[in-house]
């Protein structure tokens, strides 16, 4: 696995790439991509960093795994490539945005437009074997992405973290609550949303209010 990552991030994460766990992870990913169909495409594994330079990070959304179906994953959590049907969680995200900030439901589920405005769409695990959810968990990715969260917490100020569901909420322990803002809710998956734990959280308008209060440009969701 060749680590080609935006220079603004590389300067902060370089020490992680040198660690033995990451070397083992790189070998694992290389083997998996050589033997199986894996997602996202190799060039998109670190796309989350390419679209959102380090110093421009304003909002962090944490997902768990990339989508494991053909042509879905593009390296950003919850996001799919242009022209791909929207997965159920993304449908519920867009439904909440429509009510919360009165934006029409979009045609494309590609969230690069958010990332380009400073939204870090970070999956805890950056790769997956096709049609096998969770197949690349506990191989080292989580240690790396935890280091990413800690780096954002330590070196930036006033970032809004949106933690959706039990898995993401556990990441709150990595974040300095004196310097940053944390909004939590249920996960946008149908299971959680249908139990009343997602809709009405107003995270998108709340995040923009917090950004505006800090003199930062709100996100065009």
TrEMBL record:
GO terms for biological process, alphabetical: base-excision repair, AP site formation via deaminated base removal
Class of this enzyme: hydrolase
Catalyzed reaction equations: Hydrolyzes single-stranded DNA or mismatched double-stranded DNA and polynucleotides, releasing free uracil
Signal peptide segment: none
Protein name: Uracil-DNA glycosylase
Role, per record: Excises uracil residues from the DNA which can arise as a result of misincorporation of dUMP residues by DNA polymerase or due to deamination of cytosine.
InterPro entries to which the protein is assigned, alphabetical: UDG_fam1, Ura-DNA_Glyclase_AS, Uracil-DNA_glycosylase-like, Uracil-DNA_glycosylase-like_sf
Xref: Pfam families: UDG (PF03167)
PANTHER family for the chain: URACIL-DNA GLYCOSYLASE
Subcellular location: Cytoplasm
Organism: Flagellimonas ochracea
One cellular component (GO) term of this entry: cytoplasm
Keywords carried by this UniProt record: Cytoplasm, DNA damage, DNA repair, Glycosidase, Hydrolase
Residues in Uracil-DNA glycosylase-like domain copies: 50-211
EC numbers for this chain: 3.2.2.27
NCBIfam families on file: PRK05254.1-1, PRK05254.1-2, PRK05254.1-4, PRK05254.1-5, ung
Top-level taxon in the UniProt lineage: Bacteria
């Amino acid at each position: 696995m060749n680590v080609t990552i935006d220079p603004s991030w590389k300067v902060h994460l370089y020490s992680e790439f040198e660690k033995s766990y990451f070397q083992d992870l790189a070998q694992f990913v290389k083997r998996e991509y050589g033997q199986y169909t894996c997602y996202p495409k190799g060039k998109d594994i670190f796309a989350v960093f390419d679209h959102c330079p380090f110093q421009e990070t304003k909002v962090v959304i944490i997902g768990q795994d990339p989508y494991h179906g053909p042509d879905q994953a593009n390296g950003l959590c919850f996001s799919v490539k242009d022209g791909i049907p929207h997965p159920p969680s993304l449908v519920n995200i867009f439904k909440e945005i429509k009510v919360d900030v009165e934006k029409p439901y979009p045609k494309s589920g590609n969230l690069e437009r958010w990332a380009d405005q400073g939204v870090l769409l970070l999956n805890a695990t950056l790769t997956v074997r096709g049609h096998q959810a969770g197949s690349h968990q506990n191989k080292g990715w989580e240690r790396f992405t935890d280091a990413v969260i800690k780096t954002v917490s330590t070196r930036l100020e006033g970032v809004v973290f949106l933690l959706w569901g039990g898995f993401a909420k556990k990441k709150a322990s990595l974040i300095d609550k004196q310097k940053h803002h944390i909004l939590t809710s249920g996960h946008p998956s149908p299971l959680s949303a249908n139990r009343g734990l997602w809709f009405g959280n107003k995270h998108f308008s709340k995040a923009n209010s917090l950004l505006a209060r800090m003199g930062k440009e709100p996100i065009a969701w």
